[in-house]
Amino acid sequence: MSRFPEEAVRKTRILVIGDLMLDRYWFGDVDRISPEAPVPVVKIAKREDRLGGAANVARNIVALGGHATLLGIVGRDEAGRSVAALASESGIEADCVEDESLPTTLKMRVLGRQQQLLRVDFEEHPSAASLDALSRQAESLIASHDVLVLSDYAKGALDRVEQLIAHARQAGVPVLVDPKGATYERYHGATLVTPNRAELIEAVGRWKSEEDLQQRAQELRRKLELEALLVTRSEQGMTLFTAHGREHFPTHAQEVFDVSGAGDTVLATLAVMRAAGEDWTRSADWANRAGGIVVGKLGTSIVTAEELK
């Protein structure tokens, strides 16, 4: 394992574009069942807001020591103001489009004794005018960054992802994508795509063996003209596919407590390491280690440079 490239990481400038979310947690105790319905009554003792979606990718980049610029769409509401405030507190340079016609994407989780009991989602699709504004801002920012990260949660901010990839290619900026859905043609021309196991199955179908997986993954990589395809496989670790072949990284997780946001941490670590000059193999190894750390934490969390060292 190579040494953590701390000095190179500090010089990295990464642009993160994607679906912004606020992850809201209400923690409490449960000691009775409601008389109104057979559900637990949670007496809330603590409330906490965290950056989610693309914002959590940016938060992880900063935690590792890199510089992150964040671009996405939020509503003109309390949750949007919370996203802006948390981004600022985290050291993220946020440049977000406000859309008056929609609420900021909010995922509210209620937990009793550290167990998630309920999640309530608030989300709507952004307007065409907001997407136009996002495209304009992206074009003005891409060339001044080392890497472009696209974090797709299918909430609408990346409806025009093809344009963003084309502009980055023209500027000579590598593009790393966390994909969503089965239509991977949208990501044609990106540098690397990081599907999880379920997302890859949706794109290429179920594989019968590791050899079958390799054939399907490499076929997808060549079809999309990617440099690399990294498949995150939960307890099986992750597998990297490049023109040089296949490399597998067994999981480093000691105990899986919560997988929320693990893909964000993996993507952020890949981006930071690639921007710092590491090759795909070393970048994937660092990302695998970071993913193994973050799944041992509760909720949407980060991994710091000190933890990776």
Element-by-element helix/strand order: HEEEHEEHEEEEHEHEEHHEEEHHH
Query: What is the CATH architecture descriptor?
Result: 3-Layer(aba) Sandwich
Residue ranges: pLDDT <50 for 5 or more in a row? none
Integer tally of domains: 1
Coarse structural class = alpha/beta
- Count helical runs: 10
Q: What is the straight-line distance between the termini?
A: 11 Å
Main sheet attributes: strand count, strand direction, barrel closure: 9 strands, mixed
How is the largest sheet built, in terms of strand order? 6-4-1-10-11-12-13-14-15
Helical amount among residues, as a percent range?
A: 25-40%
**What assembly state would you assign to the polypeptide chains in this entry?**
single chain
Task: Summarize the SSE layout with pairings.
Elements: H1 6-10, E1 13-18, E2 20-33, E3 40-53, H2 54-63, E4 67-71, E5 73-75, H3 78-90, E6 93-94, E7 97-99, E8 106-112, E9 115-122, H4 128-141, E10 147-151, H5 161-171, E11 175-178, E12 192-193, H6 197-204, H7 210-224, E13 228-232, E14 238-242, E15 245-249, H8 262-275, H9 280-294, H10 305-308
Parallel strand pairs: 1-4, 1-10, 2-8, 4-6, 5-7, 10-11, 11-12, 12-13
Antiparallel strand pairs: 2-3, 8-9, 13-14, 14-15
In short:
The chain is an alpha/beta fold and 309 residues long. The protein has helices spanning 6-10, 54-63, 78-90, 128-141, 161-171, 197-204, 210-224, 262-275, 280-294, 305-308; strands at residues 13-18, 20-33, 40-53, 67-71, 73-75, 93-94, 97-99, 106-112, 115-122, 147-151, 175-178, 192-193, 228-232, 238-242, 245-249. It is globular, with a radius of gyration of 19 Å.
